[in-house]
Design goal:
Layout lengths: L1 H9 L4 H33 L5 H46 L2 H4 L4 H21 L3 H19 L1 H48 L1 H6 L3 H54 L4 H42 L8 H8 L9 E8 L8 E8 L3 E6 L6 H8 L7 E6 L2 E2 L5 H7 E4 L10 H5 L8 H10 L3 H6 L17 H14 L4 E5 L7 H15 L3 E5 L3 H6 L2 E6 L2 E6 L1 H7 L1 H8 L9
Parallel strand pairs: 3-8, 3-9, 6-7, 7-8
Antiparallel strand pairs: 1-2, 1-4, 4-5, 9-10
Helix pairs in contact: 1-10, 2-3, 2-6, 2-10, 3-5, 5-7, 5-10, 6-7, 6-10, 7-9, 7-10, 9-10, 15-17, 20-21
Length: 578
């Protein structure tokens, strides 16, 4: 019943087309059931030596109308299935793009992709095999049974006994099909997730000579999917013969019993032909019901997995937030402020412990500390990928929770250390999320980030594809593109996760100059691993074990902070890894 309820919710906005497909399918069944009556008249007339041409003409017209109604009904149903699948994929992908970042932490992206693509394909098949035809099958079965009861109730009793046995066999199978379907869908999702894992890190796989390891992992996942699908196919295969045996057995029983009744005079030859023909049309609605029940049980796993995705929490702006942001001018306050912020990715395991600091509207703030101190977590909270457990994050003096996500992220730009680029051209990546930008501004930012020569040397300039994840560019080039993209969006605050990590000394000096220029027009907050970046900062925050232990300039901290002096002394190059 859960599968039927999920299917009903899914089809809620498509009742009209579904009803139309069901009506056409039912019309085809009714036209088919009219044929035995005309066939009886034609056979009885032929037995009496009279060939009734009008009856034959009407019978031919009925055959044509029957075929047309069924063909149109199947097209309407297929069209409805494709439309529902398209809309469902739009809903799923749109939902996934708004799901809270925390929901991705313990889920595999490949499995979510499988739910949005593979599971929706299962749902399309489910729609094509259940909705409309299943409803019409029930109505057609009732009409066929009524016609058979009117033609000969004794023969109908024989047919019902045989078909009742096949229904019992079906019910015994479908209970297990649902569980098998869920297992198969999970196995397919795990296989896609493992493949996405291997191909997403294909360079690492090759560098570590791990092809056999990943091949073995994929082979194991494929084997599990194979066994799960085979188990489900075996259960589904049991339901088909039950229907076929019922039809064949009923047909043979009707012929034997009917022949005896014709010889005894209890019924005419025309009655037997009409009953036999009507019984063959009884098989169609029965098959549709079998197919619908089986399809719902097979698709129940996919429906449940889709429902689980739609249940994932999404980022939602508070209604009061929009009104608060739109009212009045923005006060001249620090662009970003943390007030006694506590946060942990798991309950009872805080990563940040009472963190508090301010970032002025201009200048550069550096964040240093050892690995695991919480620097990236501060960036994640500043970008509102997560919300604090306690305390508050303020943007321009206003609690960030009362600012729409889009407005907040327009004000706070982020450049990650691995500098992810998207498949597309260099121009596409530069303008991604930037809004209207002039060519003059693009060239100015290219010059600021040292990309002018890079763009000029590309085959098609800014319109050159950069490859999947920007593989056609070097690590340093990808990082500069990410910085340029952020600058073109004109945020009030830019978060930079070690912007010089992949740069050569000349490029590092150029970027240091660029950051100094940028810091004069907006705020910069940098996770600093190199002393060249630290010395350029107007303020340095020392983070250790989730708490701010010291603040000041580079020279001030060398005098006032023993921990900062140890970090500096442990850096040989001079680099400070954190």
């Amino acid at each position: 019943m859960a599968g039927w309820r999920d299917l009903g919710r899914l089809a809620r906005g498509y009742r009209g087309p579904i009803a139309g497909a069901a009506a056409l399918s039912l019309l085809g069944t009714l036209l088919a059931l009219t044929q035995p009556l005309l066939a009886r008249a034609a056979v009885d007339g032929a037995a009496a030596g009279q060939l009734r041409w009008p009856v034959l003409g009407a019978l031919t017209a009925l055959f044509a109308a029957h075929a047309s109604a069924l063909a149109l009904g199947r097209y309407v149903q297929a069209h409805t299935g494709e439309t529902m699948t398209r809309d469902l994929r739009r809903t799923l992908t749109g939902h996934l793009l708004r799901v809270r970042i925390a929901a991705f932490d313990d889920r595999r992206v490949g499995d979510l992709i499988a739910r949005a693509c593979g599971d929706t394909t299962v749902v399309k098949t489910l729609i094509a095999q259940s909705l409309g035809t299943g409803l019409a099958g029930v109505a057609g079965l009732a009409a066929a049974v009524a016609l058979l009861a009117w033609l000969d109730p004794w023969l109908l009793a024989t047919v019902m006994v045989l078909f009742g046995g096949s229904f019992a066999a079906l019910l015994a199978v479908v209970r297990r099909v649902r569980i098998a379907s869920r297992t198969a869908q999970n196995a397919e999702g795990a296989l896609l997730a493992d493949l996405e894992r291997a191909l997403g890190g294909i360079r690492l796989v090759r560098a570590c000579r791990a092809e056999p390891l990943e091949a073995a992992r994929l082979d194991t996942s494929a084997g599990r999917a194979y066994l799960a699908n085979l188990r489900m196919a075996g259960m589904v295969a049991l339901s088909g013969p039950a229907n076929d045996l019922a039809v064949s057995g009923a047909f043979l029983a009707v012929l034997l019993s009917g022949a005896a009744r014709v010889s005894s005079g209890a019924m005419t030859l025309g009655d037997l032909v009409a009953f036999t023909l009507a019984m063959t049309y009884l098989a169609a609605p029965v098959y549709e019901i079998f197919q619908a029940v089986s399809a719902v049980q097979q698709g129940a796993g996919a429906l449940q997995r889709i429902t689980e995705v739609l249940a994932l929490p999404v980022e939602r702006d508070r209604p009061v937030a929009v009104a608060a942001v739109r009212s009045g001018a923005r006060p001249a306050r620090p662009v970003l402020e943390f007030r006694d912020v506590w946060f942990g990715y798991r309950p009872g395991a805080p990563v940040l412990r009472g963190v508090g600091f301010t970032v002025p509207a201009r200048g550069q703030v550096a964040l240093v500390g050892p690995s695991g101190a919480g620097k990236s977590t501060i960036f994640a909270l500043a970008e509102r990928f997560y919300e604090p457990d306690r305390g508050s994050v303020l943007l321009h003096g206003r609690d960030a929770r009362f600012t729409p996500y889009a407005r907040h992220r327009a004000a706070v730009g982020l450049v990650e250390q691995d500098s992810p680029l998207l498949a597309g051209t260099l121009r596409d990546n530069l303008l991604y999320g930037a809004g209207p930008v002039t060519d003059r501004e693009i060239h100015r930012v290219l010059a600021m980030t040292g990309l002018t020569r890079v763009a000029a040397e590309l085959p098609a300039g800014l319109d050159t594809p950069v490859g999947d994840h920007g593989r056609r560019l070097s690590g340093g080039q990808r990082q500069r593109v990410a910085i340029a993209r952020c600058l073109l969006a004109r945020p009030d605050l830019i978060l930079l996760d070690e912007p010089t990590a992949h740069l050569d000394p000349d490029s590092e000096r150029a970027l240091t100059t660029t950051l100094h220029e940028v810091a004069e027009v907006c705020a910069l907050m940098v996770i600093a691993h190199r002393f060249s970046t630290v010395r350029a900062a107007t303020s340095i925050l020392v983070l250790d074990r989730g708490a701010i232990t010291a603040t000041g300039t580079h020279s001030e901290l060398l005098l006032a902070s023993p921990y900062y002096r140890r970090l500096a002394a442990q850096t040989p190059t001079p680099q400070m890894y954190g």
